[in-house]
Design a protein that fits this description.
The protein is of the alpha/beta class and 163 residues long. It contains 6 helices and 5 strands, in the order E-H-E-H-E-H-E-H-E-H-H. Strands 2-1-3-4-5 form a 5-stranded parallel β-sheet, with helices on both faces. Helix 4 links the parallel strand 4 and strand 5. Helix 1 runs parallel beside helix 5, helix 2 packs across helix 3 and helix 5 packs across helix 6. Bound molecules: 5-O-phosphono-beta-D-ribofuranose.
């Protein structure tokens, strides 16, 4: 089995059902990935070690899902220059709006590429990770292009209209 190129991490096991969707998308592109649960507030030293070792372990993109105050993506981004994609998760009475604002509002200099709340975001994190990796992988770039061409076919044109 090849070494993981994408690390999918999340703040709690309760995030797993949603974050698994990111892995499913990466599987469609045949991108090896790994998955871990680590909390920025419950186990900050584990997060520090994971970020520090990530490049040497072959990871090229990190996807971090978190709910509530949702520190995990920003903390990871502070500890590595690998691209970090943040997935805001619902689960509190604020339904993910809290996590969305927390993750998307990173001050300049330490970016987190924030995707939509919940399952839509987890899936898009997989697609975005594929596009980032495709920049240095022509075979993957062809698979990314092929999928885009495939979804472009999902249209219904009005009668008499030719694009
Ligand atoms: C965040 O708090 C996690 O990412 C999760 O979305 C939320 C609730 O965590 P648990 O109380 O289910 O462990 O840290």
């Amino acid at each position: 089995m090849s070494a993981a190129r994408v690390g999918i991490v999340m703040g709690s096991e309760s995030d797993l059902p949603v974050m698994r969707r990111c892995g499913e998308v990466l599987d469609e592109y045949a991108i090896p990935w790994e998955l871990g649960v680590m909390s920025a507030h419950r186990a900050p030293e584990t997060v520090r070690a994971y970020a520090g070792q990530a490049p040497g372990r072959g990871l090229r993109v990190l996807v971090a899902g978190a709910g509530a105050a949702a520190h995990l993506p920003g903390v990871l981004a502070s500890l590595t220059t690998l691209p970090v994609i943040g997935v805001p998760l619902a689960g509190t009475p604020l339904q993910g709006f809290d996590a969305l604002l927390s993750i998307v509002q990173m001050p300049p200099g330490v970016p987190v590429a924030t995707v939509a709340v919940g399952e839509m975001g987890a899936r898009n994190a997989g697609h975005l990770a594929a596009e980032i990796l495709a920049l240095s992988d022509p075979e993957l770039a062809a698979r990314v292009r092929a999928r885009r061409d495939q979804v472009a076919g999902r249209v219904q044109l009005p009668e008499g209209f030719e694009p």
